[in-house]
Design brief:
The complex is a heterodimer of chains A (109) and B (118). With 109 residues, chain A is mainly β. Chain A has no helices and eleven strands. Helices cover 0% and strands 56% of the residues of chain A. In chain A, a hairpin with a 4-residue loop joins strand 7 and strand 8. In chain B, strand 7 and strand 8 form a beta hairpin. In chain B, strands 2, 4, 5, 6, 9, 10 and 11 form a seven-stranded mixed β-sheet that branches. The chains are: A mainly beta (109), B mainly beta (118). The interface between A and B is medium-sized, with 20 and 23 residues.
Chain lengths: 109, 118
């Protein structure tokens, strides 16, 4: 079983749509969770950390379910500029981050 | 957020030669930097953790004699791919943690170096 699993997609949605991505992780001892965004042939950029109580940043909402070892990202009112690959990232130990393979989002006009 | 730079952004070299990639933290000191590799359509894979003033810690399966890491200052880590072969062609990305902030697990990534070995 992969340490961090994501549906690779692609998710094709029209502008203005709401889209949700899910991620599961295998290490129950993980304490920190993130969503990163990666554009084609570029480095990952931190989108948001994921807190136990859930958190929202503008159009983006992240949720964590520790019991199910499940993380989600909701994007509302999708923009063309949201087209990218979204990486679910989980910490392992004190310093190591483990990346999922990413979910590709394509937002069309 | 913190800024991390990498140089070069792109390099093409011949098989058997060595290539050095630099990773710098521009506006903060990074006692720990990380080196990742990403093959097409695959996830980032951690290669090694670079600690200032001490030996790097390599992940299982990564040859330390082939991928030499030096972290001689608080703002610079280098990765040298020795005797490069075509299968080493990949996107190499470094990251660093900014300990000034309380979000201790967040890592900031450099723009990456695309290595092509011919």
């Amino acid at each position: 079983r992969k340490e961090v699993e994501q549906d690779p997609g692609p998710f094709n949605v029209p502008e203005g749509a709401t889209v949700a991505f899910n991620c599961t992780y295998s290490n129950s001892a993980s304490q920190s969770f993130f969503w990163y965004r990666q554009d084609c042939r570029k480095e990952p950029k931190l989108l948001m950390s994921v807190y136990s109580s859930g958190n929202e940043d503008g159009r983006f909402t992240a949720q964590l379910n520790r019991a199910s070892q499940y993380i989600s990202l909701l994007i509302r009112d999708s923009k063309l500029s949201d087209s990218a690959t979204y990486l679910c990232v989980v910490n392992e130990g004190f310093q190591k981050l483990v990346f999922g393979t990413g979910t590709r989002l394509l937002v069309s006009p | 957020g913190a800024v991390v730079s990498q140089h070069p952004s792109r390099v093409i070299c011949k098989s058997g030669t060595s290539v050095k990639i630099e990773c710098r933290s521009l506006d903060f000191q990074a006692t720990t930097m990380f080196w990742y590799r990403q093959f097409p359509k695959q996830s980032l894979m951690l290669m090694a953790t670079s600690n200032e003033g001490s030996k790097a810690t390599y992940e299982q399966g990564v040859e330390k004699d082939k991928f030499l890491i030096n972290h001689a200052s608080l703002t610079l880590s280098t990765l040298t791919v020795t005797s490069a072969h075509p299968e080493d062609s990949s996107f190499y990305i470094c990251s660093a943690r900014d300990y000034r902030e309380s979000r201790a697990y967040e890592q900031y990534f450099g723009p990456g170096t695309r290595l092509t070995v011919t």
